[in-house]
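[Help] Beginner question about ligand-bound structures

Sorry if this is basic. My supervisor gave me a protein sequence and a SMILES string for copper (II) ion and asked me to "get the holo structure". I don't really know what that means in practice or what format the answer should be in. Inputs are pasted below exactly as I got them.
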Amino acid sequence: MIQFSSTFLRAALIAGIFSVLPAAGGLAVEQASAHEFKAGTLTLNHPWTRATAKGAEMGGGFVTIVNTGNEADRLIGGSFALAGRTEVHEMTMDGDVMKMRQLEDGLDIPAGATVELKPGSYHLMFMKLTAPLEAGTKVKGSLKFEKAGEVPVEFAVEAMSAGAKGHMSGGHDAMPMGGTGMKHGG
Ligand SMILES: [Cu+2]
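Answer (accepted):
No worries, everyone starts somewhere. Holo just means with the ligand present. The predicted complex, written as structure tokens, is below.
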């Protein structure tokens, strides 16, 4: 579990790192670069990530997973060409404290359901980035499911400022790991 103090959160909001406020009219950008991947009854809509500053160690991966089948599946991991490790995470707000945790058992994708990995919620966490993510490029990776197996995808890298459309910008890449206002535990 990683927690962010309100002080850090405020600073992050000012810096535009996180924008947790919903904003209307932001879909155009995503639709313009929409792309999808299929595996059995699963459709993976528009896998994307956000550009990172030089030296950033982490990034967030987002995608909408549609399960048109009669059986549930489970997102248990993934990969990203420019990351040392990829985990499935959940972010929640507890009052004004932002919490992030790894979903060790993965994320349930119920039959007939649409599950959205998005800033401020479920996401893939790209750890130990080996290079900055550049807006406008695509990075190969995969999503790993319990039943559907490993599905190759490409993550579209969107601008750092893409947070203006209601997504939390920056993922966690700008988090001061080990810095003030953060607690590791759990
Ligand atoms: Cu995370």
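A couple of things worth pointing out: Helices lie at 6-15, 27-32. The domain at 2-177 is CATH 2.60.40.1890 (Immunoglobulin-like). Feel free to follow up in the thread.
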